[in-house]
# Entry
Amino acid sequence: MSIWPRTDSDGTLPQRATGSATATEIQVALHPLPSMPELARAWTELESRSDSSFFLSWTWIGPWLAQMPDGIEPQLLVARQGGGTVGLALLCPRLRRRFGLLPSHCWMLHETGDRGYDRLFMEYNGILADRRFADEVTDAMLQWLGERLGANDELVLGGLTLAAERAARRVAARTGHTLQLRVADSAQWVDFATVRAAGGDFRGGLGRNTRAAVNRSERLYRARGALEHRVATTVDEALEYFAGLEVLHQAGWQARGQAGAFANAAFRPFHRRLIAEGMPQGAVRLSRVSAGGQAVGYLYNFVHRNRVLNYQGGFAFETDNRLKPGLLSHVLAIEEALARGEDCYDFMSTPAGHKPLLSNAEQPMNWLTLGPDRFSRRMEAHVRRARGVMADAVKRSLRGWIAPAKGI
# Structure
């Protein structure tokens, strides 16, 4: 493949770094993966100089690499400037066949091409870059990749941040490649600055019907006994909550005739490792809502740069439709995060009926491919659009449910 590791000198791209006093070169090169301890040191050092998302933190990337299925060989893309590292990213090569026939070499950004493993679901994806000139570094690294894509190559960019998507669009324009939309979605969240500016009463700012549903559900649960929202404080307690989440989550989805997130063989071991490593850092937050001592809901959230990111939940099935265990669990978690002084509660992507009811902010989050303009790619895009029409209909039918797993 034309993109396979080159020397540093081959990967030099002149760029102006706005965070420095003079114009300097950003040098880009692709390398075999170093040892995990060496990579961890380099990654966490750069992470301390970046404004990256949780999914580009070593808390996520470390377990992702450690649990990766056999046969996948990630490569490390490195950007250097003035002798220091200013950008890092992991690329996984993957051979696929369009329509089962035409070979295509894919380079996947923080994904593997393994269907099950990628259902762990990368969001807010991009380049780990020095915050002083993150846009320039992202541009340089994607440009380097784009210029080396052969006729049958493509770069797979999933769950991008807006900044990373803008960079990909600039690279497409400069290289003449096409940028195709695989999946269009959006992230929705509660911006606590807006809530605080309105007086700090999150529940009071909800729509009348939503607020009534939350308050009614709370009263009914309190009739069973004490209502408690508890956040796990130790790794053991967090893993206990994770196990409880699995029971409720799987029961709910199996009752609907679907497998649920934990049917994915990669899901449980990956997250048990992430919880064990992330809890002591304060990067993982598991909570339980109980009424009369009986669990009615669990939430599995991440905490990063003062943002709470909702990843998964499990809620008790109730025959009384006035009881809304999922809605109430989220409201209590939101109110708790607001009281902690955090900045937002982010529901991230995938459809769920509670998101538009509780959110006050939204932005696109798209899954793209970048590559040469080929007839086979155009045909595949037409097929994907047709499937998208069907998928939209399915999404509408799922409104009001919590997705069983990101990307499922």
Q: What stands out?
A: The radius of gyration is 22 Å. The chain has a mean pLDDT of 87. The CA atoms of residues 255 and 317 lie 9 Å apart. The chain is about 35% helix and 30% strand.
